[in-house]
Amino acid sequence: MAYVDHAFSISDEDIMMGTSYSVNNKPPIKEIALALSLLVFGVLGIVLGAVMAVNKVGGDRAHGTFFAILGGILFLPGFYYTRIAYYAYKGYKGFSFANIPAV
């Protein structure tokens, strides 16, 4: 009679066999809303900052430059996660709503 190690055998009584798994690929609404708001405020910051720098609002170009840099900092993650959400919505290969971190 051959030796059989039952510690690693898979049987029908195994707990994992009875459970069913479903893929939850629903869009995370709060995370997408945050990404869109970062994108919108980033674009507004860049545009208003450029206008303020050109017109020297506040006496010099420093105020406009600050707003443009702040807009750029807001724009980058907003664009990145909005792009991921869009591609996941359209069903592109390699993109999923699971790639968007939770808030």
TrEMBL record:
<comment type="similarity">
    <text>Belongs to the TMEM134/TMEM230 family.</text>
</comment>
<dbReference type="GO" id="GO:0005794">
    <property type="term" value="C:Golgi apparatus"/>
</dbReference>
<dbReference type="InterPro" id="IPR008590">
    <property type="entry name" value="TMEM_230/134"/>
</dbReference>
<comment type="function">
    <text>Involved in trafficking and recycling of synaptic vesicles.</text>
</comment>
<dbReference type="GO" id="GO:0005776">
    <property type="term" value="C:autophagosome"/>
</dbReference>
<dbReference type="GO" id="GO:0016020">
    <property type="term" value="C:membrane"/>
</dbReference>
<keyword id="KW-1133">Transmembrane helix</keyword>
<dbReference type="GO" id="GO:0055037">
    <property type="term" value="C:recycling endosome"/>
</dbReference>
<protein>
    <recommendedName>
        <fullName>Transmembrane protein 230</fullName>
    </recommendedName>
</protein>
<keyword id="KW-0472">Membrane</keyword>
<dbReference type="GO" id="GO:0005770">
    <property type="term" value="C:late endosome"/>
</dbReference>
<dbReference type="Pfam" id="PF05915">
    <property type="entry name" value="TMEM_230_134"/>
</dbReference>
<feature type="transmembrane region" description="Helical">
    <location>
        <begin position="66"/>
        <end position="89"/>
    </location>
</feature>
<dbReference type="InterPro" id="IPR044234">
    <property type="entry name" value="TMEM230"/>
</dbReference>
<feature type="transmembrane region" description="Helical">
    <location>
        <begin position="32"/>
        <end position="54"/>
    </location>
</feature>
<keyword id="KW-0770">Synapse</keyword>
<keyword id="KW-0968">Cytoplasmic vesicle</keyword>
<keyword id="KW-0812">Transmembrane</keyword>
<keyword id="KW-0333">Golgi apparatus</keyword>
<keyword id="KW-0967">Endosome</keyword>
<dbReference type="GO" id="GO:0005769">
    <property type="term" value="C:early endosome"/>
</dbReference>
